[in-house]
């Protein structure tokens, strides 16, 4: 076991504080990663505050991890010491179900093992990226291409793949009109990626406050959803809408913006249930769907795509002592567009 410094929430809704945790010994197929940067995802806050249900404490959040391989197990073939690598939202899965075999480990029939707030195959709690080192099976580790700086690459391990996966699955590309709901940590990545894929991109945000940013990031159009005229003007306009917000939407209103056979895909996860009049789906053969991260193969594909197109996250680099303040600022939408922790400060 190796003792490493980390920042943890000792209990639900408690401020995060500096502590130490134990990392397992490097096994045959493990890599030990010196974490350099860790992104702060809204889901870290949901879980640290038990917004999504009962959680495991103490909790070391963080599933947007970028670092360098420091040691490899004797059976490791994918990586060597010194490689630039990343770890996203999962660190294991059953590896045997149809989904795992198909490369969709995120939808493991037995449940994938989360990078934190989960139990590993030995029944031990997993601890995430707000720490200086992590030990991960090579099969759940990805390579960060040389064209990406580690600090702007870290958020790609959740925000990047969470938006790339549905855009890829629902065939965003030339000739397609794609709307992104919300311009935050996920939304700004969705805009960059959809633009790079060749789609015509529209941002739907509550106000026009971030319009200039949205257009610079690659959006072709930007509309305020607080203006009722928006829903009149854009009725039937989109092939695909990706909702990145974690607040309940008026789904009937947003579904009215889809063309026939269009899809509204949710990647934001509100804490509250939502209601829906099914006629808004039936009329136009529309789809209301969800999507969660991506498998390991698709995550690597996303990183390679982002490197090829020069896409990284827009970040604000912070020290570990600023984590609690950063959480409050995320809740106030006061970040453009992802906080990233310099783990050297832990």
Question: How would you portray this structure in words?
Answer:
- The protein has 346 residues and is α/β, with parallel strands linked by helices.
- The protein has helices spanning 42-48, 98-101, 150-153, 159-169, 185-197, 211-217, 228-233, 251-255, 279-282, 296-308, 323-331, and strands at 2-8, 17-23, 30-39, 65-72, 84-87, 90-92, 113-114, 133-137, 142-143, 177-181, 200-205, 221-224, 238-243, 258-266, 287-290, 315-318, 338-342.
- The strands form 4 sheets. Strands 3, 4, 5, 8, 9, 16 and 17 form a 7-stranded mixed β-sheet that branches.
- Helix 4 (159-169) packs across helix 5 (185-197) and helix 4 packs across helix 10.
- It is globular.
- The mean pLDDT is 96.
Set down the secondary structure blueprint:
Elements: E1 2-8, E2 17-23, E3 30-39, H1 42-48, E4 65-72, E5 84-87, E6 90-92, H2 98-101, E7 113-114, E8 133-137, E9 142-143, H3 150-153, H4 159-169, E10 177-181, H5 185-197, E11 200-205, H6 211-217, E12 221-224, H7 228-233, E13 238-243, H8 251-255, E14 258-266, H9 279-282, E15 287-290, H10 296-308, E16 315-318, H11 323-331, E17 338-342
Using only CA atoms, what is the Rg?
A: 20 Å
Distance between the termini: 19 Å
Instruction: Name the overall outline.
Output: globular
Uncertain segments are: none
Q: Structural class of the helix and strand makeup?
A: alpha/beta
Largest beta-sheet characterization: 7 strands, mixed
SS summary, helix count: 11
Order of helices and strands: EEEHEEEHEEEHHEHEHEHEHEHEHEHE
Which whole number gives the mean pLDDT? 96
The amount of beta strand, in percent, is 25-35%
Helix content: 10-25%
Strand segment count: 17
């Amino acid at each position: 076991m190796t003792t490493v410094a980390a920042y943890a929430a000792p209990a639900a809704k408690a401020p995060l504080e500096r502590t130490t945790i134990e990392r397992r010994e490097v096994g045959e197929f493990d890599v030990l990663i010196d974490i350099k940067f860790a992104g702060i995802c809204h889901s870290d806050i949901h879980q640290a505050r038990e917004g999504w249900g009962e959680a495991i404490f103490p909790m070391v959040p963080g599933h947007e991890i970028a670092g360098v391989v420091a040691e490899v197990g004797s059976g490791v073939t994918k990586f060597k010491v010194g490689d630039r690598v990343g770890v996203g939202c999962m660190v294991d899965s059953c590896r045997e179900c149809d989904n795992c075999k198909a490369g969709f480990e995120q939808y493991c029939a037995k449940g994938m093992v989360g990078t934190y707030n989960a139990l590993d195959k030995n029944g031990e709690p997993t601890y995430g990226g707000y720490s200086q080192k992590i030990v991960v099976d090579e099969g759940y580790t990805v390579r960060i291409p040389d064209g990406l700086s580690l600090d702007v690459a870290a958020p790609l391990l959740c925000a990047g793949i969470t938006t790339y996966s549905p855009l890829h699955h629902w065939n965003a590309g030339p000739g397609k009109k794609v709307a992104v709901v919300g311009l935050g940590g996920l939304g700004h990545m969705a805009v960059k990626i959809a633009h790079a894929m060749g789609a015509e991109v529209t941002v739907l945000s509550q106000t026009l406050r971030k319009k200039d940013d949205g257009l610079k990031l690659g959006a072709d159009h930007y509309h305020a959803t607080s203006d009722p005229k928006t829903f009149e003007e854009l009725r039937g306009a989109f092939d695909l809408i990706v909702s990145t917000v974690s607040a309940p939407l008026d789904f009937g209103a947003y579904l009215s913006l889809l063309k026939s056979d269009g899809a509204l895909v949710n990647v934001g996860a509100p804490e509250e249930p939502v209601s829906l009049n099914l006629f808004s789906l039936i009329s136009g053969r529309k789809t209301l769907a969800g999507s969660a991260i991506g498998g390991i193969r698709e995550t690597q594909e996303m990183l390679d795509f982002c490197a090829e197109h020069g896409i990284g996250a827009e970040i604000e680099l912070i020290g570990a002592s600023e984590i609690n303040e950063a959480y409050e600022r995320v809740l106030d939408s006061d970040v453009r567009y992802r906080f990233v922790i310099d783990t050297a400060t832990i």
